Amino acid sequence: MMRHPYRLCAFAALVLTLDGSGFAQQSSFRLYGAPDGLQNLAIRSLAQDGALWANTTEWVIYFAGRPPGRHRLEIQSRVHDGTVLAKATAWEFQIEPKWWETWWLQSSALLLFAAAVWGITFRRNHLLLRRRTAELEAERSHLLDENKRANAALEAKGLFLANISHEIRTPLNGVIGLSMALEAMPVPAEALGIVRMIRSSSDTLLRVISDVLDFSKVEAGKLELEVASFELRRALEESVTLFRAAAAEKNVRLGCSLAPELPTWVSGDGTRLRQVVMNLISNAVKFTSSGEITLAAGVERHDAASYSIAIEVRDTGIGIASEQLPRLFSSFNQADASISRRYGGTGLGLAISKRLVELMGGTIKVESKLGQGTRFRFTVRMGHAQEPVALPDVPTAALSAGHLRVLVAEDNLVNQRVLLKMLERLGVKADLAADGAEAVAKALEQHYDLVLMDVQMPELDGLSATQQIRRLVPAGGQPLIFGLTAHVTLEFRDTCLAAGMNGYLTKPLEPEKLRALIAELSTGNATGTIPSLE
User: Where does residue 74 rank: exposed (0-12), middle (13-18), buried (19+ CB within 10 A)?
Assistant: First the structure.
């Protein structure tokens, strides 16, 4: 029935031409292609407007809203007598998309949309990243500034404490030295008792100063150990012996129980180990009014390289309440505020002891019951060591030190007298220099076997004076130079050695150490080599 096929576009008109003799009175139309079926189908006659069916050979069918794609149109007609034509007329046609409906344009639009979304997301994330980076950089800069300020504050604090230590230890050296000299003199018993109380008070003040300095090192992370061979059994026994008189005054028995397997010689920091043990025994004596105090030590385990030494101090003192135990090792803390008022103390001893034990590779624990007593137990790791070759012990009376030429460089008048008196008791007549410049001049005038050089002096300090002596005095006439200082840090020891000193003695001076140095010089066994200052 269709005479001509047409290619249609959306909303285009389809013209159907029917045979003139067999006009279709009614036709049904079926359109295939889109899933939503035929929409907005309308038929009108070209010859007579408004008539639904007319004797005309042309009909126009309009399709609205058809999607682009392949479609099929079928027409089945019925004539005037009602006969339905058996054969349906079918026509397939293609509706071409508009330019904005083409696949390439839609794909491009989709890609552009995706690119726009990606660009917006990227830009947003970039801005967020820049903002966060700026925030982190500002925070980092702030933290660095805070860290610098904190380090500067710690350094200033350390310098302040070091200077305070020097300023306190210098006159304290005079007090202790003169009290020791008085003790050696034939004085009345009452005066001797007063002198000993002065000495005891001075020793107490010295321990407080040492605790404060140690605590400052703990805070700054600069508390270090000096490893050397020492006699473990002797160190523990001497620590107990120091407190026997104080315990006896309170009628408290002080015992020492050392296991047979405990090694005699070990490698470690004997001074710091004594400090921990003496702190625990001192606390036990302070807080025990009756009963007993026991120091026990043994080997917990050992291997080819080291020992794990277990040490405990038990007492029958006032004890500690269980709720106070967790903060017992905190700085400036005591179990009860009234304890500080009644017994004294800074509250630093246990905090320092805990840090020292940890540095020595161990742990410390406490068990206590109020009114029954306390048990402190700690472990330390010590290396194996052989007994060193001992130098002959030269009695003071047998010291042949009269031939030694010693120069004392000290600006403090009291300390000058203390040093000269100590050397005189050892048989040494020393020359005196009041400052560093005078010490250099005297060292250039004549040869000295030993120069005891105070580090902090006016005009020219001891470090600078030492450097000048090393530079100006011929190599064959170089003396041993030992610094005299109240600084007790390892850093300052390195400073002294770097300046050309052979060693140093800390204030207050210990007569035993000075005597040992003079004994080595008198026998030709002085330790320490002249540093090279090329």
Answer: middle
Burial code (b: 16+ CB inside 10 Å, e: under 16) for 197-216 equals ebbeebeeebbebbbbbbbb
DSSP 524: T
For residue 500, how many C-alpha atoms fall within 13 Å in the half-sphere facing its CB? 22
Residues contacting residue 480 through CB under 8 Å, at least 6 positions apart: 449, 450, 451, 502, 521, 526, 528, 530
Distance between CA 372 and CA 386 in Å, rounded? 41
Convert the pLDDT of each residue in 137-189 to its tens digit: 999 999 999 988 888 887 777 677 767 776 777 777 778 888 888 887 887 88
What's residue 293's pLDDT? 95
Spatial CA neighbour of 96 closest among 67, 116, 58: 67
Strands (E), 47-116: 58-62, 69-78, 89-96
pTM (2 d.p.) = 0.56
Predicted local confidence at residue 421, as pLDDT: 87
Q: How many helices (H) and strands (E) does the chain have?
A: 12, 19
- Which has the minimum average pLDDT: 75-89, 283-297, 423-437? 75-89
More confidently predicted of 51 and 439: 439
State how far the Cα of 247 lies from the Cα of 5, in Å rounded to an integer: 128
428: three-class secondary structure by DSSP: coil
Q: Tokens standing for 40? A: 């907005």
Q: Pick the more confident residue, 531 or 486.
A: 486
β-pair type (26-32, 69-78): antiparallel
State yes or no: pLDDT of 259 exceeds 80. yes
459, 525 in Cβ contact below 8 A?
no
448 touches 479 (CB < 8 A)? yes
Report CA torsion sign: 259, 261, 265, 271.
Answer: negative
Q: Is 472 exposed, middle or buried (0-12, 13-18, 19+ CB in 10 A)?
A: exposed
